[in-house]
Amino acid sequence: MKEIKAIISAYDKIDKTATQAALATVVRVEGSSYRRTGARMLVTDDGIWVGGISGGCLEGDALKRARLAIAKSESSLITYDTTEDDAYQIGVGLGCNGIIDVLFTPLQFGNKNNPVEVLKTCMLANRQTHLLMTITGLEGEWANVKAGDVIQYSGPESIAIFDDSATEKQLQEHINLQIESNGSGPAKIEPAAGKSLSVFIEILLPEVHMVLMGHQYDIYPLARLIKEVGWRVTMVSNPLKINSKLSETVDAVFSYEQLGAIQIDQYTAIVLMSHDYKTDKRNLPKALETDAFYVGMLGPRVRSEKIIAELADEGKTVSHKDMERIYAPAGLDIGALSPEEIALSIIAEIKAVFSKREGGFLRLRHVPIHERN
């Protein structure tokens, strides 16, 4: 999400009367790759780019390909095969052992349906999940679409543009599979002999939103690191105790009494870090009333256990289901000591929980780091 925001920001600053641009998008990955599907890079014809499609090894060639797409005014799909020993293959010798398809699409600034304009529409929406279909290849006769087109899917009516029941049926089946897996991936359909359609079906989730409840000095490095990662951060505290420098770092500031006014959904993590026992005890039930997927608490385990026990004695028993959302003490066991290190451990744990991972050592993982198509 941070990369998309950076691309949109750079796109908006382009002098569209004197500069042309293209968008490079990773639409298929087979095997190992530093970046996954959905990685993007905005390239202008003067050689400036924002974002990335690899760890830096393919960007040089991608720059040339993007400028060529601009010159030809048509999209092109390029395959980078880092598994080959061909000395002329871009990326050979990198050791990535993967195949990456990148779509290069010239941007028509006056077209509100160009890929970046579509992304802007998604970003302006109020924390919704979006499904985008990027057409990556066509064979045969297709009347209403071309390679590089992006379709925002909001229901079966969105694919009526193909005006072909066989195409719509097969495409809907692939869309349903991606929705079920809650992940992005390529698809290819062949509705008739000599006719095929290749698309990249992308699920764009809302950015992770962290709600920090407290005002002590350790909230500063946590807020800064959250913004560096590219997530949204909201601070909940006593307005009289908020430092102006912190209010410049976070996206929004609310008082404890305004907690109900914050949009907290299933992509939100809450961290109770007031360092005041009574305040955290009062706020824990309120946090559990929300849809937050993670509720973290600073302090030793005995502190959180005491809070939960006292709440039970007061008739506010925390359910087993809610206990699964509580992470106390918050953070992964990395030996963190300083506020900065503690912030790192908390963000790492939240990312692991969000990704449904255990947060262990990668060298002990015996399956691929990323799911393979």
Mean pLDDT: 88
CATH architecture assignment of the largest domain: 3-Layer(aba) Sandwich
Major beta sheet summary: 6 strands, parallel
Report the uncertain regions.
91-95
Counted by DSSP, the helix tally is: 10
Kindly state the number of beta strands: 15
Global outline: elongated
Class of secondary structure makeup: alpha/beta
How would you describe the oligomerization state of the chains in this entry? Answer: single chain
CATH-assigned homologous superfamily of the largest domain:
NAD(P)-binding Rossmann-like Domain
Order of helices and strands: HEEEHEEHEEHEEEHEHEEHEHHEH
CATH topology of the largest domain: Rossmann fold
Strand order in the largest sheet: 12-11-10-13-14-15
Please give the alpha-carbon distance between the first and last residues. Answer: 22 Å
User: Which percent range describes the beta-strand content?
Assistant: 15-25%
Any chance you could write out the topology, listing elements then pairs?
Elements: H1 2-13, E1 21-31, E2 40-44, E3 49-51, H2 59-72, E4 76-81, E5 98-106, H3 115-124, E6 130-139, E7 150-153, H4 165-181, E8 185-192, E9 195-204, E10 209-213, H5 219-229, E11 232-236, H6 244-249, E12 252-254, E13 268-272, H7 277-288, E14 294-297, H8 301-313, H9 320-323, E15 326-327, H10 339-354
Parallel strand pairs: 10-11, 10-13, 11-12, 13-14, 14-15
Antiparallel strand pairs: 1-2, 1-5, 2-3, 4-5, 6-7, 6-9, 8-9
Helix pairs in contact: 1-3, 5-10
Features of the shown structure:
single chain, elongated, 15 strands, alpha/beta, 373 residues, six-stranded parallel beta sheet
